[in-house]
Amino acid sequence: MVPQNVYHPCGAKGKRVIIQFDGVYMNPTVFINGANIGQHPYGYTSFWYDITDKIKFGEKNLVAVEVKNEGQNSRWYSGSGIYRHVWLTVADPVRIAQWGTAVTTPDVSASGAKINIKTKILNEGSDAQKVSLIIRILDPNGVEVGKIQKEKDIKAGATFEFDQDAEIQSPKLWSCEVPALYTAVAEVYAGMHVVDQERSTFGIRKLSFDTQNGFMLNGNSVKLKGGCFHNDNGPLGGKQYDRAEERKVELLKASGYNAIRCSHNPPSPAFLAACDRLGMLVIDEAFDCWKYGKNAYDYHLYFNDWWKRDIESMVTRDRNHPSVIMWSIGNEIPERTTPEGVDEAKMLGNYIKSIDNTRAITAAVNYSPGDRDSYFNTLDVGGYNYAVGGDNNQKSFYETEHEHAPGRIMMGTESYPWDAFGSWMEVEDHPYVIGDFVWTAWDYMGEASIGWLGYQQGASFYPWNLAFCGDIDICGWKRPQSYYRDALWKTDQLSIFITPPKPSFALNPLIEPWSKWNWVDAVAGWNWKGYENKPITVNVYSSCKEVELFLNGKSLGKKATDRSTKFEAAWTVPYQAGKLTAIGYDGDKKVNTAEIITAATPTQIKLTADRTELKADNQDLSYITIQLLDKAGILNPNAENLLRFSITGPATIVGVGNANPRSVESNQLPQRKAWRGKCLVIIKSTRKAGEIKLNVSASGLSNKTLSLQSK
Fold first, then answer.
1. Are 541 and 486 a contacting pair, CB within 8 Å?
2. 539 falls in which pLDDT band (50, 70, 90)?
3. Catalytic site residues?
């Protein structure tokens, strides 16, 4: 039981009291003052209860949540308990229903847009009411650009859905580059009194999908530069603070991503709000299984009784987010090649479209023998997991599939990091392949070592605990494959990585040949004492037309880096300490420079906060990267010093990490070893304002203090 005291607000008698849980993993039962008010098995959909009849007005009330996270119910780290927000709302009996507002933009052009707003109003009072609904539409600058109004007599105990249209002249369209957000401010009047108000943010944009033009946003072709991610937030575990969700989107956007597949469950509302603000496209996914499970205690136990409620929760909660462009009904569903599975897919897709018909339906489908066409035919966009290989005529998988099903719109819903070049070239070459989503964009806990030891997994893999396959590691730092993806997606990119003379970790001689979630063994360091004059491979990832490599000022030659070289080049270099420099050229013009310098023993600690001002709301976070530098300010990639942390002021340390996939150190204790010269501390504000000071110490090094402000 997780009890929470609730003090009822003044003047609440006669109102309705609603409690909403954004996410509880899993199978919680909720009690109010000892009374069981309901159960919600799925750990990833939001749910709510009207608890008015259980409240003792004017007295202390007790909310208790019993969580039953039992048995093997997940294929990845899910966290446990109340890991998203809980909301308590006091509302009038006449009010807007929970998730009862639906904003769509059926007609969109640069000159004007039609906005349709459906608003479901409840009258849970004892008398009929003349209800007026006034909606003001505010543009991204908060200026009113539209107003609509309707009235309706609503009987006691009845529900009515208002259906209203508005015209917006010269709208600012929502896009990845300019994510303009409008706000619909709804006011509900019962007679002459305002009884409810709701603000719904939305974007004005137009979506289309076809095999000739691919995916189009506002009439412009957009290639989905995508990645998948799981639900956890690294050192925070399953906790989904708003700032953690926002930072994830910020860092993925900075690394070139424009699309995220939420695998394999609906994300937090805070994540989608961040995607709306920052211009990130989203595939909102419902389930990892339906009637037939992948673990003994997973969602298949509840699917028959709960799928409809969980779909309704996902779609009604998330339908106003302009970032959401597709609904995914499932991932690698076991029964996908059977008539039963096809019927289930139709059932899910049809129900989604009965609620929201403005987006495409998709699913992630892995290869299996049998009839896949019937399943794909239930989808608007066919999602392919690991679409690699081809026929004997050297046609790619997608080319062969297109010949088989020329009307099918396709995308890679999962792809191997190892196949990054080939997977992206398919998107570049074929309009019917609208995007590619690597597994994964962000590393995660669970499926330990699929990015190094691979499959088949076993107990001998311990102490591996991270998947080690993400472009971005669990601390939010770019891994080598992310720099390679920069070269695929952006112009004039350049980076240097070294193939270690001995593997970074022990290898798995029994790895399956199809297990390709790994990247090459690559390190951003030029510290190889003991290998003097021995050959070491230097790899350059580049979208410059040519690259010249230098060691200690001496040129080692130029090499082309373009599609014909897969945007990479390699040199075999006899090791000498000093400086490696790569210069990228476009013709005779230098367009970029990268370098790696041999580091000496660390002598100093460097602290860098992503934000130095926090809100005093008991929720805000600052992520502080700690680097161990030599006297010249060069990061030492071999440093693994034990770092100790202390904090003063109105904040707490809520997580520490280093992205070492084999580390079993605590994510909560105020200490952590560095790995590859770095460590991370996450600080959370309290409700008090004031100065916060983080002190970091390590044996043999001078302490370092960082000051932040909470306001």
1. yes
2. very high
3. 332, 401
